[in-house]
User: Fold TLC domain-containing protein from Lipomyces starkeyi NRRL Y-11557.
Amino acid sequence: MIDPLAIAYPEGVAASLDAICGYVHLPALSKHIHEVVLAFALYQGLFLLGPFFGSFVSSYKTLNERTRLNFDIHVVSQVQCLLILALALPAFFDPDLQDDHIFAYSPYGGLVYAFAVGYFAWDSYISIKYIKWFGPGFALHGVASLSVFLLSFRPFLMYYGPIFLYFELSTPFLNVHWFAGHLPSGTISETVQLVNGILLLVTFFSARLVCGFYSIGRVAFDAWAVLDKMPLWLPSVVLTSNLSLNCLNIYWFSKMIKAVQRRLNSVKAGTTAPDLLTEEEDVKGHKME
Assistant:
């Protein structure tokens, strides 16, 4: 499949980009550098427009600085997850990626990964800039995610790109949940919140846990068949990273189930229902990608 943004490639610096990307063993990245920069600029622009979006919410100015920051981040996250899901969908049917699950390259697949890399570059930047609130763990998470997605430009595992990116299927519902918990009461109806909560649990379980562990198995099987054609560290890094993330997702899902149980018990008792996630967990929520 073709890359619709290839027309914007800076031909004047092509030789330099090819040399630099070849030197760092990411040769396919040179054709998509401009898309990484575009994605980063898009997400940073949305982040800077956070106060503008917040102006439509009466309580935005009353929020403390940390919560306003999280509001702005969740706006970016919502746009990013919807955009990347839309971009990744055609990649499932990209004929250039079907014959070789490990080393295949596609111009369109490169576009999709470029936007993912652009987001994680932005995420790393924000996590480091506000490390006093997010802590070093989230900065390391952002940098690690950025590094893993960059490996696709060797090229490596580009076939699995749309599968990995569709782990994001639960993120729109996670963001809606966060907004519902921080906007004025009644802004998002109880019915919408209930439906959203159910969809969050269903998509989180199916996309992140079921598909997550299944995909790890498929990657391991495919990589084993061609292990002699690549350095051992390459599949090891990707598999270890994804396995660690999936184990973390089990922890998050168990917290969600316990929160649902608390909510049901509160409804039966006629008391105020607790939020699906605590404030501390909400701050971490934008990292669940």
